[in-house]
DNA sequence: GGATTGTGTATTTTT
DNA sequence: TACACAATCC
């Protein structure tokens, strides 16, 4: 602790935090466990560097992964230093890349006005490349090809740098050729995809060492958030930039590395001391978020991973409640259970915004949403389609892109027939061909051809009108206020009218989103400035406020915290996810385990884990086993919940443990399973639901199904039976949902 | 050119 | 099951 009166912003730091904040020059790695004040330390260190004069604002480079994190950082640093962060380079990796490239575009063969493509554009481009190479995009989907190319870019490889051993035989071994062609197309379009924003920077610094040297001299302080999420390209970039003053501070937690599937390399954080010799390492292990039992459960679980720095989180907080584990019949029961628990919390005057339900995969939210709607529990789903990914927003933005950048072929193609103007595939293909042949944009080719017989007559008139409209809007661009102009464009193009005429229920929402977009434009000086923002900021427009339960994936929950957390669907196959395991083996299992760790450590006061005995996967019902992670939780920190009406638990000979499910009535909705069933503390150490019981059925048996009523068995096929229901016709159902009638 | 039917597939997601 | 995409028909 400081012996001299410390600056006020240093007050209240614990010794490790203080050490991290005030560490001397040189490489510094801050290993910050969950809930140990990571953001606080990073922002305070930045403030400290400024306040002590070790760096001036324009000598600081601070990078984050998301715009949200960047905003948060700006906000907190400004709060600490009491002035604006003007002049500082504080933003996402991609924003940083964009900034470098706009300044030095020519060096890598771009024009400074290059456009940034979104995923949609990228896929369309890959499709074009596949077509050009006559590759069946049914067998080798563009999305998958793009994935491969992106992973290469994440590793910092341009087409000529991809090692032959990495090429593989996907798309008939032509992936590398696709990559080259894709890059060529991007160059012609004067466009970058997200990977290029970093990759081109590497190329830029290689080609222009003087430019690199200039930035190396400039950035006296480099700070990196969430270092465990960096990919190789980002790492290489950081290493280059840090070679000047070697003042690089990286904050991260190897135990929270959950993005390897999109290129993140845990190795970067594990190797830090080798990459930056002489690096100081500070561990933040005191947790300020969770109670003792929650922390203990999380620590016990993550200790099973091998590839980690190893930290021991501790807290001075009370032990609190043990982590609760509840076993349910199926996803409906699970949703009913969680809904009941949330209502109980509500009755106890807890706020719903302090609660969260986390799932492994997006589709799992559905069952919860349905139940919450039934109960009238307000909820919000994080993730899903983000604002700028909605079709109407992308369409609107495409119009603006064409106005600002007439050469933007992808945008042009997107809206040339939206709303429908009778400009079909034939016309578009003709335009594309003409444009390619003449080496110009489609819009200019259209202007040239619209008066000739080269194009189908059908939409010629409308195309001419559209071109004239674009010319007019472009003409007005410098004179009209952005908001005004955008409203005019959306109106005169017929785009708003298209949605007004649409009578489907979602049209109203789409119109509102468009209004939202127009409002967002007001904050920008010009349309180009706005588009630059849109290119980079693909995040959720304004989180809805109000007292609601939050539903989201485990990935989306990283960095957040809630008093009451429900971790659902802890079943083998779902979590850990089978597909991940198939693809990535032990490494993937460890990543899934980190995901579980992230989940548990989101909880401040109470953590509840649930799993179901039956789950529908791809429309098929199947018996599920509890996740291995359930067993890995240290018993002293957990507490199994049993339904009070399961007072006569059956002993399952297979596992030698208690089963929650009494034989006989297995539907979870029958008399044995009333919702009134209160939860009591269980004695069983391990509760395993058994595979669905097989009551022998025979052809011709009379059966009863809770939903479909009485029927007759027509055919048997293992657990699946074909039943002719008296009222609902012939259906295939699982044996476990049937009751045999005498 | 647009609506309709059929087929195949099916994590996690930011920029 | 449920959705997206493509071939097919009008």
Structure explained in plain terms:
The chain has 742 residues and is of the alpha/beta class. The protein is built from 27 helices and 25 strands. It has an eight-stranded mixed sheet with strand order 11-12-10-13-14-9-17-20. Strands 3-2-6-7-1-8 form a six-stranded parallel sheet, sandwiched between helices. It has a five-stranded antiparallel sheet with strand order 24-23-22-21-25, with no helix packed on it. A hairpin with a 3-residue loop joins β21 and β22. α5 packs across α6, α5 packs across α7 (175-188) and α18 (425-438) packs across α19 (442-449). The longest helix is centred in the C-terminal third of the chain and has 23 residues, at 578-600. It is globular, with a radius of gyration of 29 Å. The model is unreliable at 644-695 (pLDDT under 50).
Structural class: alpha/beta
Give the spatial strand order of the biggest sheet: 11-12-10-13-14-9-17-20
The portion of residues forming beta strands comes to 15-25%
Distance between the termini: 78 Å
Largest sheet: 8 strands, mixed
Low-confidence stretches: 644-695
Mean pLDDT figure: 84
């Amino acid at each position: 602790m400081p012996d001299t009166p410390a600056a006020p912003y240093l007050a209240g730091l614990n010794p490790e935090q203080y050490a991290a904040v005030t560490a001397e020059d040189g490489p510094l790695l801050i290993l910050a466990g969950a809930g140990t004040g990571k953001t606080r330390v990073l922002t305070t260190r930045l403030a400290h560097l400024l306040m002590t004069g070790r760096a001036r604002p324009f000598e600081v480079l601070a990078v984050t992964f998301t715009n949200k994190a960047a905003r948060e950082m700006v906000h907190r640093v400004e709060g600490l230093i009491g002035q604006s962060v003007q002049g500082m380079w504080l933003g996402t990796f991609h924003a940083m890349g964009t900034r470098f490239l706009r300044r030095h575009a020519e060096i890598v063969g771009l024009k400074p006005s290059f456009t940034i493509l979104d995923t949609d554009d990228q896929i369309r481009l890959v499709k074009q490349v596949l077509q050009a190479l006559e590759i069946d995009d049914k067998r080798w989907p563009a999305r998958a090809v793009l994935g491969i190319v992106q992973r290469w870019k994440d590793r910092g490889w341009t087409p000529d740098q991809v090692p032959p051993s990495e090429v593989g035989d996907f798309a008939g071994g032509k992936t590398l050729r696709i990559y080259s062609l894709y890059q060529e197309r991007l160059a012609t379009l004067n466009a970058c995809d997200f990977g290029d924003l970093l990759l081109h920077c590497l190329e830029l610094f290689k080609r222009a060492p003087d430019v690199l040297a200039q930035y190396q001299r400039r950035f006296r302080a480099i700070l990196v958030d969430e270092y465990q999420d960096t990919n190789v390209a980002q790492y290489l970039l950081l290493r280059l930039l840090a070679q000047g003053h070697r003042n690089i501070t990286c904050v991260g937690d190897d135990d929270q590395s959950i993005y390897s599937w999109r290129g993140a390399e845990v190795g970067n954080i594990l190797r830090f001391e080798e990459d930056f010799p002489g690096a100081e390492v500070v561990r933040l292990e005191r947790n300020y978020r969770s109670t003792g039992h929650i922390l203990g459960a999380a620590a016990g679980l993550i200790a099973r991973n091998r590839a980690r720095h190893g930290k021991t989180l501790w807290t001075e907080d009370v032990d609190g409640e043990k982590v609760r584990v509840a076993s349910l019949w199926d996803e409906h029961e699970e949703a009913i259970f969680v809904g009941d628990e949330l209502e109980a919390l509500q009755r106890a005057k807890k706020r719903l915004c302090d609660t969260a339900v986390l799932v492994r995969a997006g589709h799992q939210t559905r069952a919860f949403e349905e139940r919450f709607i039934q109960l009238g529990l307000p909820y919000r789903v994080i993730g899903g389609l983000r604002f700028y990914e909605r079709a109407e927003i992308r369409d609107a933005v495409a119009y603006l892109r064409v106005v600002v950048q007439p050469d933007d072929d992808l945008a042009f193609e997107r809206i040339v027939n939206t709303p429908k103007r009778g400009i079909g595939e034939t016309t578009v293909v003709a335009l594309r061909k003409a444009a390619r042949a003449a080496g110009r944009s489609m819009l200019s080719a259209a202007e040239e051809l619209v008066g000739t017989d080269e194009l189908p007559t059908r939409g010629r008139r409308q195309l001419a009108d559209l071109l004239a409209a674009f010319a007019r809007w472009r003409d007005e661009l410098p004179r009209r206020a952005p908001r005004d102009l955008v409203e005019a464009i959306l109106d005169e193009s017929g785009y708003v009218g298209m949605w007004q005429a649409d009578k489907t229920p979602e049209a109203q929402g789409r119109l509102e989103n468009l209004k939202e977009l127009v409002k967002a434009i007001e904050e920008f000086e010009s349309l180009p400035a706005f588009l630059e923002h849109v290119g980079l900021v693909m995040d959720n427009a304004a989180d809805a406020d109000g007292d609601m339960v939050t539903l989201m994936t485990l990935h989306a929950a990283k960095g957040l915290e809630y008093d009451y957390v429900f971790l659902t669907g802890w079943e083998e196959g779902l979590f850990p996810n089978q597909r991940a395991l198939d693809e990535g083996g032990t490494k993937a299992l460890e990543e899934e385990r980190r995901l579980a760790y992230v989940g548990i450590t989101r909880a401040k006061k109470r953590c509840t884990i649930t799993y179901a005995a039956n789950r529908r996967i791809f429309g098929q019902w199947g018996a599920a086993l509890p996740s291995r992670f359930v067993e890995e939780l240290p018993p002293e920190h957990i507490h199994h919940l049993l339904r009070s009406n399961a007072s006569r638990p059956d002993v399952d000979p297979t596992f030698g443990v208690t089963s929650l499910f009494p034989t006989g009535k297995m539907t979870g909705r029958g008399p044995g399973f009333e919702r009134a069933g209160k939860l009591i503390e269980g004695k069983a150490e391990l509760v395993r639901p058994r595979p669905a019981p097989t009551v022998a059925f025979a052809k011709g048996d009379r059966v009863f199904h809770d939903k479909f009523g009485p029927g007759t068995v027509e055919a048997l096929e293992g657990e699946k039976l074909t039943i002719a229901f008296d009222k609902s016709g012939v259906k295939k159902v699982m044996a476990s949902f049937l009751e045999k009638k005498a």
